């Protein structure tokens, strides 16, 4: 059976029959084995003509392949000893001089491994044994014991070995953007680079522009894939920068190591007053490092650490250091009742001058609200308190309400999303009778119902100083809207009222429209979005606006209701009418 070498080609090639090679005799040369002719097809067994071959196959006899791979074949116009033969003669000379022969070229060595495996010319399949020689083998690294690839790396994807212009253009664009950011840092006062994803390397490039910088006062580097390694770029930069007042690194996973590195740097900074580290994967260790920094740094007034993984031990450390700092944002850390106990105890013991405290979304229940109430009674500096999205329930609301009776500083209270019902709201309403400090009350996302809003409106008719009241998603219904409408006839302090998503419908809108016909000089913003109001309610509101040209409302939100174009046209005409008669603009949102 005669043999041949079958090599697939990506495009059709002409059949090639080797010529008789010119032999070059050397000390190592051996006479080639006798050539055997290729088998002819059965249909032309008596013919001496070479068999027909597929156009996409390249056939070489074993002898010719050996001559080709061994470097012994030459072109017809190349004399012996020139080109590939010269390389073999140099190897023979080295052997005669007692030196080892040079290694064959990599491609030759690879192809030699394939040469012995030959398949018939008519075969249509490639034997795995042949393919296996093209795949890189694996050897064990004696030092590490791990398998490593050896041999030639082969790529079978079209164009995979070519450098793509797409990656080059992306790199070029990245450099251009970094240069642009660098210029902004050197020239602008407020620089927003949030979400640019320039990473640690980009920060090392940009941080240099902050050295001796006298222009940039607020810099936002949030959401840029910066890690603890990138924080080191600020070393030697922030120590000498005195112009930067606000630094935002939120949304970068710097972790505890990054917090420690940044704290060491900020000890010597005398310019930054606001530091934002929300959602940065900081835990207790990082919080303790920040605490140590705050004891030495006297300029940072606002610290935001929301949505991290700090527990009560970390918060206790921070609270101990907050003697001169004004704002503390700890939203979304989930430290629970134990965490809030430690935090409040530390704040009470050290009497820090806290003006803003955000402990929302931290799994605080009625048990934890007791510690908050104790701090409310004691503080003489707190102006803004948020317990948003905890679960203090009616019991916790009653404790907070009792504490507010003794507090004379807190003007904003956010109790939204705390599972408070009518009982808890009634306690808060009683507090507002004698409290003239609270001006903003957030109760959204609590199922207070019609009874709860009635208790609140009965007090706000003639008492309290509340200017902003938010009751969205409170299930007050149409009857609740009637209590609100009645309150608006007498109240002289409310300027912003949020009643979104309370199922008011057309009847509720009509009730509120009636209150518009009475002059209310305080209410400027009313939000009725998500209330299933249709055209009838829109017509009633439009008529009320036309009838009372002296109405103080300048913003009316009716988005996400069920108006048709008729209701929208009626409201638009009412808006235009008010402007024509009084030159007062009303913003109406559909």
UniProtKB/TrEMBL annotation:
Residues 37-56 have a biased composition (Low complexity). Residues 1-57, 69-104 are annotated as: Disordered. Residues 1-11 have a biased composition (Polar residues). The keyword Repeat applies. Pfam families: LRR_6 (PF13516). Residues 69-79, 88-97 have a biased composition (Basic and acidic residues). The keyword Repeat applies. Keywords: Repeat. This is WPP domain-containing protein.
């Amino acid at each position: 059976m005669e043999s041949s070498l079958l090599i697939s080609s990506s495009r059709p090639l002409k059949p090639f029959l080797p010529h008789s090679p010119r032999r070059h005799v050397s000390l190592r040369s051996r006479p080639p084995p006798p050539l055997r002719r290729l088998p002819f097809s059965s249909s032309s067994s008596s013919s001496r003509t070479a068999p027909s071959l597929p156009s996409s196959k390249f056939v070489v006899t074993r002898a010719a392949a050996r001559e080709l791979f061994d470097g012994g074949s030459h072109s017809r116009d190349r004399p012996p000893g020139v080109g590939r033969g010269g390389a073999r003669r140099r190897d023979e000379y080295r052997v005669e001089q007692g030196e080892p022969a040079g290694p064959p070229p990599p491609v030759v060595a690879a192809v030699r491994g394939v040469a012995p495996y030959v398949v018939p010319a008519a075969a249509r399949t490639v034997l795995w044994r042949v393919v296996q020689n093209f795949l890189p083998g694996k050897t064990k690294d004696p030092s590490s014991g791990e398998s490593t690839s050896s041999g030639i790396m082969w790529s079978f994807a079209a164009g995979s070995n070519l450098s793509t212009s797409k990656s080059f253009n992306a790199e070029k664009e990245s450099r251009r953007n970094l240069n642009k950011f660098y210029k902004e840092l050197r020239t602008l006062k407020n620089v927003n680079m949030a979400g640019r994803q320039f990473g640690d390397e980009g920060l090392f490039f940009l941080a240099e522009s902050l050295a001796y910088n006298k222009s940039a006062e607020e810099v936002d580097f949030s959401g840029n894939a910066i890690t603890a390694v990138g924080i080191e770029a600020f070393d030697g930069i922030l120590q000498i920068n005195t112009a930067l007042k606000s630094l935002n690194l939120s949304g970068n996973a710097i972790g505890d190591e990054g917090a420690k590195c940044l704290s060491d740097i900020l000890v010597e900074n005398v310019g930054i007053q606001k530091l934002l580290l929300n959602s940065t994967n900081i835990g207790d260790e990082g919080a303790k490092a920040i605490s140590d920094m705050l004891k030495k740094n006297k300029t940072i007034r606002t610290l935001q650490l929301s949505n991290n993984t700090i527990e009560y031990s970390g918060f206790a450390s921070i609270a101990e250091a907050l003697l001169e700092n004004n704002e503390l944002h700890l939203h979304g850390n989930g430290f629970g009742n134990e965490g809030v106990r430690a935090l409040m105890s530390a704040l009470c013991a050290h009497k820090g001058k806290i003006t803003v405290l955000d402990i929302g979304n931290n799994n605080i229940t009625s048990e934890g609200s007791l510690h908050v109430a104790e701090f409310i009674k004691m503080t003489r500096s707190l102006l803004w308190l948020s317990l948003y999205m905890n679960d203090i329930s009616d019991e916790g609301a009653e404790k907070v309400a009792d504490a507010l009776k003794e507090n004379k500083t807190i003007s904003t209270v956010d109790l939204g999303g705390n599972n408070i019902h009518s009982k808890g709201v009634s306690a808060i309403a009683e507090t507002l009778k004698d409290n003239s400090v609270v001006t903003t009350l957030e109760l959204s996302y609590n199922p207070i119902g019609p009874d709860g809003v009635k208790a609140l409106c009965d007090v706000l008719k003639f008492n309290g100083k509340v200017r902003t009241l938010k009751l969205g998603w409170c299930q007050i219904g149409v009857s609740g809207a009637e209590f609100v409408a009645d309150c608006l006839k007498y109240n002289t302090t409310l300027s912003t009222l949020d009643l979104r998503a309370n199922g008011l419908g057309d009847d509720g809108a009509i009730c509120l429209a009636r209150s518009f016909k009475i002059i209310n000089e305080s209410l400027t913003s009313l939000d009725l979005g998500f209330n299933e109001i249709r055209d009838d309610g829109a017509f009633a509101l439009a008529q009320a606006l036309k009838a009372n040209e002296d109405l103080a409302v300048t913003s009316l939100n009716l988005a996400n209701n069920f108006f048709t174009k008729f209701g929208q046209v009626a409201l638009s005409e009412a808006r235009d009418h008010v402007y024509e008669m009084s030159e007062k603009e009303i913003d109406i949102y559909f």
